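Our preliminary data section would be incomplete without showing what the modeling component actually yields. Below, a chain of 223 amino acids is followed by its predicted structure, encoded as tokens that our downstream tools consume directly.
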Amino acid sequence: MTSAENCLYEVQAEIRAAEAEFARPNGSVRLIAVSKTFAADQIRPVLEAGQRVFGENRVQEAMGKWPGLRNEFDDIELHLIGPLQSNKAKEAVATFDAIHSVDRPKIARALKAEMEKQSRPLPCFIQVNTGEEQQKAGILPADVDGFVAECRDGVGLNIIGLMCIPPIDEAPGEHFALLQKIAERNGLDQLSMGMSSDYPVAVGFGATHVRVGSAIFGVRDKA
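Predicted structure:
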């Protein structure tokens, strides 16, 4: 059994424990194994251990390594969790099964146009910049309500939830609580939040998807 397999099982067990601790239904939290920067040979043992939901940050990287893996495992679910440029919308819609990083009207419109062309209406999350960090992508908290309405009612995207990445130097719980509050008032019940360092905390604030990479695959050599 590989180290990645052992780590996967440990993360799965911690998620189940957190569900129990916070009175969440068993299985209500989906694990997205974040495989960015890791090669197909490093991902394959995790697939063989039963994990099927994965997250990637870059469209080009995903296009390079996932077609071969999908030939081996036909039930893979791939989520785009990194920033998206509008000129990559076509490839993103063709490659991924869900988009977590809708963060501006231009991207929303580009995605909708490609989904219609490809007859592939993907579920989408809006990324919220809960820490209002200048260097980070995402809609500012004060602007989320209007952007949700624009994406749903104006553009016609299937917005199912919100995503956030808290500042690294602040308590994540405050940001998870804020995202939960914004989602509730917009009638959204899916929350993509929590990473390797804080996913049990995110479960306590209602996360439905946790994005865990290094706790499964190990430390990355590059971002």
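Strands lie at 30-34, 53-56, 77-80, 98-102, 123-128, 158-164, 190-192, 209-212. The first strand starts at residue 30 and ends at 34. Preliminary results of this kind motivate Aim 1 of the renewal.
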